[in-house]
Each structure stands twice: as C-alpha cells, then as structure tokens.
Amino acid sequence: MAGFKETPRQKMISMMYLVLYALLALNVSKQVLDAFLVVNESMVSTNESLSTKIAATYNRFEEQYALQKEKVGPFWEKAQEVKQQSDDLITYLNHLKLKLVEITQHKDSAKVIQQYYRDTLVPAPYNPGKMIHRRMLDLNLVPNKNRYNDPTEYLIKNEVKKNGEAYKLAKRMEQYRQFIIKMMSLPDSTTKVGLITNYLGKKRIVYHNADGQKQDWETHNFYYTILAADITLINKIISSVKGAEFDALNYLYSSVTEKDFKFDHIEAKVIPKSTYVLEGGKYEAQVLVAAYDSKTNPKIYILPGANQINDKNIKKAQKINGKGGMVSISLPARKEGLHKFAGIIEMINPATNKIAKYPFNGSYIVAPPSLTVAPLKMNVFYIGVDNPVSITSPGLAESQIHPAITAGKLIKNGKQWIVRITKKVPGNKVYISANANIEGRKVLLGKSVFRIKRVPDPIAEIAGQTNGMINKSTLLAAGAIIPTMKDFEFDLYFRVTSYTFSTLINGDWIPKNIKGNRFTPEVIRLIRNASPNQKFFFENIEAKGPDGTIRSLNPINLEIK
Fold it and tell me: What average pLDDT does range 376-390 have in this prediction?
C-alpha cells in the first residue's frame, strides 16, 4: 500500500498492525458496527429532512419566477445551476456507496441492489409535500460490514501515486465547494460552506493518525476503515452537500429583492380623482409623467372632446403650466354622459436637453347621484377586526346619507364608519346600501358588495429574522417566537400556541415539541452550547388569531455566527 520497498522492520510493523486490526475485528466488531449503524440511520434521516426543506425553497423560488420572470430570472437560472451541480455530486456519492458494497461483497450491482437495497418512501426531489418510493441501501442487510481490505484497496490504492477513488472524491468535493463559494460570493477560507478536505483557502490542513504521523484527508478517513464507516462517512458528505445547496438557494432567493427594476420608458398618465361625476359638479384629475424627475416643470395642452391633439386642432387647446413633474387639470361636468379629452405634455429631456412631447388622452362619465362606499384600509372586510370605511356621495352632506349592511354591524365613528364582522357570512359577501333625502325625496343611492375574509397569517420571527446568520447572544436575548403582521394596517395580535424546535448535534437530529412561544430551559441550553455554523430550525409553528382560528406559520431557520 505504501508504494515503495519496505525494510524488514517496516514489514514487521505492518504485520503487527494487521494482527491488531484482526483482534479488534474479533473483539469489538459487534459494538463498533452497532454504533455505525445508529449513526448512519441518523444521517439518512437528516438527509431526508434536508431534502424536504430544499424542495420547499425551490417551490417558493419557482412561484416568484412565474410571477416576475424578468426580475427573478437571473437568480432562478443560478438556482438551476446549483440544483444541477448538487444532483451530479449526490448521484456520484450514491454510486460510490453501491460500488463499495459491490467490491466488498464480490457481487455485481444488480445482485447488490436486489439483496441489500429496500424500497423506501422518501420526499420527492424539489416537490414539497409529495412522497415517492425509492430503492435505497439498507446497511443493516449488508453482511461483512467490518471488512476493510477491499474498500481500502479501492479508495486508496497507492498513497504515493494517489490513484484511489478517495482522491477523486476529494477533488469533486473541492470543486463543488468552490462552486458554492463563488455562487454566494464568499472568501475561499470560509467555514460557512463545509466539504473541507486538504485545504481551507490557501492553508494546508494536516491530519494525524493515532501515532501522531501526518496524513492527508483521504488516508485519514479511508485508510483501513471498515465498510460500515465508509458508508456512514459518505452519507455525512451527502448531508454537507445538501446543507451547502440549501444555503446557496436561500442566498439566491434573498438576493431577488436587492435589485429593483430600472425605469427605461417614459409615459404620460392621467390620474383622475374620479371618473364618475355628479351632474353639476366638476371632473378633476392630475396629469403626470410616470418615472420622471420631480424637479422638472412640464406644460400641457389639453383639448376637451378630442381623441388626440395634432397640428390642426392644437390652437384650440388650453395651455396649462405644471410643477414638480405634475400638472393638475379641471374640466366641467355640465352634461350627463361620456366625455373625452386629449392632450400633450411638453418637457425638457435631460439626455438631449431638447423639448420632448408625450401625448395622452382620457375620458370621464357625468352621471346622476350615486353611493360611494370606500374602505379606508383594505378592499375587503376582515373577520374579528374593526374595518373603517368612508360612506359618501358626491354633492351630499353626511347627514343626508343613511347606510345599512346585510350582515354584521355598521357603527358610526366620527366622520367614518366601522364595519364589524364577528363570524363567517354565507357566500363570504356583504352588501352596504344607503338612502338619502334629496329635495324631500327618499332616494336609493345604490349598494356595494364586499368580500369577507379572515385576517392574513402573520410572519413568525425571532429577533426580527426568519432565516440567516444570527449571534448567539441575540438569539438567547430574543427568547421567543413573535408573530408579526407585515404590511397589514389593522391593530391585531396573534398568540403562538406551539412549535417544534430541532437541531443537529454530532450527526443526530434533535427535535423538541414546545407549547407557547417562549424558549424552554432545554432550548436555551442547546443554544448556549451551540458551536459556530450550527443550525436551529423552528417549525410547525401554530398561532391563534383574533378570529379564534389556528394558523400554521412559516418556519424559521437560523444559523449561529
């Protein structure tokens, strides 16, 4: 194995090592094998859990890509590269396990799969929630798990020539590590990405055997190690690959919002205060240039009754000066019906320093009196909260309007109204109507329909985070999961009733089911004793809302800095 001629003394030492290994195999093989089987099962379980988390993240990523292809596309393409590279390496590692069993048992791959693989229900790759059947190696079924000669010959072969499969494995691990590092813009010496073999950046890593002799990564891990140990170590490498894939994927997903769209088109817009005007009132609107510098002072020509302004009718148009990139217009509403108008905005183009013209047109309807019911915060009514609405009709005083609602309560509150829905409504819709006294007559102004919805789910956070790196002290100081309503204007609170806490310690998956939102003493102890880069998962978070329903909230994945 050494690749050079040995002295008689060296031959004697080698023989003594062989005798020692034989004695160890005879005396403690059962205990050693049992220990490796336990660790291997834990690694397989961990890998399945990571596969589920990766699938969920890919699914969220794909949903965003479908909604915003132009914005998400560059990051989605990189995510596909990560998927391809990860799949290729994991396929190689699974084949390596098969090859080791083949050469150890002296059987071809078909017989190995038939005898030592079993049909297992596992999470479907990149399809969260779906389970599939897959043939997987069951180490318990493999005899002679304590053999080491054949695996060593295949993995190491010659320590001087370095032509064993372990050296190819180390090279592929390093290539994948560098790929992930580049994808996440990390330094070569980072420890955030695992799969470290003989180098950490430019620093050479030296390993030592039990006698203190220097070794490289390959011999340290695979020289005269039994088959059970080799399979367990390869499953651990698979876990590192999945962890790196998960981190890179989350990094790309979080990068989507870092770059916003750049405006590359200028377009005139008409923003009316209302396109439904009471007879005798006025149509009012603002004309502005979208995505343009607010320091500009445009001017417009506007012509009622026209579809467009041209050289023939521009002399009839009214000239209005604007300010701050915006022009306000006011048109009469003396006659009921549809009214059109057209115009041109003139302003200095800063790129050419010349006048640029942007045409626009619009229309508005002059109609009889009608009811306007406008929610002040949302376009729906939410169960269990006070929904403020404004109920008005153009040209009518508040005292003239008498509204009613088909379900729930309608309560006057100053100049606005409060809609209060306490339970589900058949059809999930309510109607608000109103009558008014106009010139001594009772007139039905109309009615409006509103959807009934339950309040949205809050976002579960710890110290304001849902994922990423966190200081241990910050995590301990937070001490609880806090449900937060994002971009929701109502004042309401959710209460976390339970969650599952889990982490990985020495290859073992440690889950804890916890009531309430606080960290238990055991959770605090695990966090306090955590090592750098250790991950903590807070999942199955349940919270009770103001409407009495129990919600399942988002998971929180944190990593200690």
Answer: 79
DSSP state string for 436-487: EEETTEEEEEEEEEEEEEPPPPPEEEBTTBSEEEE-HHHHHHH-B-EEE-SS
List all residues 6 or more positions away from 159 whose beta carbon is below 8 Å from its beta carbon.
1, 2, 3, 219, 223
Please tell me the pTM assigned to this model: 0.45
What are the DSSP E strand ranges found in 9-154?
Answer: 117-123, 131-137
pLDDT at 378 over 90: no
Q: How far apart are CA 556 and CA 549, in angstroms?
A: 21
Amino acid at 206: V
- pLDDT-derived band at 5 (thresholds 50, 70, 90) equals very low
CB atoms within 10 A of CB 346: 14
Residue pair 445/534 in contact by the 8 Å Cβ criterion? no
Domain range list for the chain? 20-257, 267-367, 372-453, 459-560
According to DSSP, the residues that pair with 389 across neighbouring strands are 375, 417
Give the Cα separation of 1 and 150 in Å (integer).
Answer: 12
CA–CA separation, 371 and 401 (whole Å): 9
- The CA distances from residue 161 to 3, 4, 79, 406, in Å, are 8, 10, 37, 86
CA distances from 396 to 283, 324, 392, 445 (A): 16, 33, 7, 11
pLDDT tens, 210-241? Answer: 778 888 888 888 888 888 888 888 888 888 88
Contact status, residue 448 vs residue 401, Cβ threshold 8 Å:
no
231 CB contacts (<8 Å, ≥6 apart)?
A: 36, 40, 97, 100, 101, 137, 139
- From residue 514, how far is each of 54, 123, 477, 479, 519 by CA, in Å? 24, 25, 18, 13, 8
**Buried residues in 498-530 as b, exposed as e (16+ CB within 10 A):** ebebbbbeeeebeeeebeebebeeebeebbeeb
Average pLDDT over residues 521-536: 92
Reported as a pLDDT band with limits 50, 70 and 90, residue 276 is: very low
CATH 2.60.40.1940 fits 267-367, yes or no: yes
Q: What is the mean pLDDT of residues 293-304?
A: 74
Say which residues have a Cβ less than 8 Å from residue 93's Cβ, sequence separation at least 6: 169, 234, 237, 238, 241
Q: Within its chain, how far is the Cα of 33 from the centroid?
A: 40
The whole-angstrom distance between residue 384's C-alpha and the CA centroid of its chain comes to 29
Range in 60-69, 232-241, 551-560 the model is least confident about = 60-69
Q: Is the pLDDT of residue 126 over 70?
A: no
**Do the first three CATH levels of 267-367 and 372-453 match, i.e. the same topology?**
yes
Tens digit of each residue's pLDDT (9 = 90 or more) over 459-488: 999 999 999 999 999 999 999 999 988 877
Report DSSP state, residue 316: G
- From 309, 159, 319, 183, select the one nearest 246 (Cα to Cα): 183
CATH (residue range 372-453): 2.60.40.10
Asked if pLDDT for residue 265 goes beyond 80, the answer is no
